């Protein structure tokens, strides 16, 4: 069991995922600050409030904060859009790498077969 665990940890995929997660955590901080420092103040200004969390209404003693819901939706849309751009760029690079990779095994085997037939 210990050997299997060691093999699992030593696989490149685990390290790649770990590095990706750490980078994502720090990237999330950047996105959070852009939302907090730029986007939400704009929303608050449009609504005429000092903070987007003040957008809402009162029912009795309870405060219904529409601004918090709007903020969560905006956070989701921005993160989803940035992830879309990252995945799109990754797929573009991957497609170029696949195109440069050269002939497939089948193409090589076909070429070898044709070469042998020609002899």
Structure report:
By secondary structure, the chain is mainly α. The chain has one domain (2-118): Large-conductance mechanosensitive channel, MscL, domain 1 (Non-ribosomal Peptide Synthetase Peptidyl Carrier Protein, Chain A), CATH 1.10.1200.120. Helix content is 79%, strand content 7%. Strands 1-2 form a two-stranded antiparallel sheet. The protein is elongated and about 90 Å long. The protein starts with a helix and ends with a helix.
CATH architecture: Orthogonal Bundle
**What name goes with the CATH superfamily?**
Large-conductance mechanosensitive channel, MscL, domain 1
DSSP, total strands? 2
Sketch the topology as an H/E string, one letter per element: HHEEHH
Kindly name the structural category.
Answer: mainly alpha
Radius of gyration: 26 Å
Low-pLDDT segments, ≥5 res: none
The level-1 CATH class: Mainly Alpha
C-alpha geometry: elongated
Report the portion of residues in β strands.
5-15%
Enumerate the strands of the largest sheet in spatial order, edge to edge or round the barrel.
1-2
The overall pLDDT average reads 85
CATH-defined fold name: Non-ribosomal Peptide Synthetase Peptidyl Carrier Protein, Chain A
Tell me the distance between the termini: 54 Å
Biggest pleated sheet: 2 strands, antiparallel
**Helical run tally:** 4
Helix content: over 70%
Q: What is the total number of structural domains?
A: 1
């Amino acid at each position: 069991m210990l050997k299997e665990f060691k093999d699992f940890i030593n696989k490149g995929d685990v390290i790649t995922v770990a590095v990706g997660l750490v980078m994502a955590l720090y990237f999330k901080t950047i996105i959070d600050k852009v939302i907090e420092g730029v986007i939400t103040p704009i929303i608050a200004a449009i609504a005429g409030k000092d903070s987007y969390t003040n957008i809402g209404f009162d029912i009795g003693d309870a405060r219904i904060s529409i601004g918090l819901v709007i903020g969560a939706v905006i956070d989701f849309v921005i993160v989803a859009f940035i992830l879309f751009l990252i995945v799109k760029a990754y797929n573009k690079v991957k497609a170029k790498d696949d195109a440069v990779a050269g002939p497939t095994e089948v193409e090589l085997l076909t070429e070898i077969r044709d070469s042998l037939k020609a002899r």
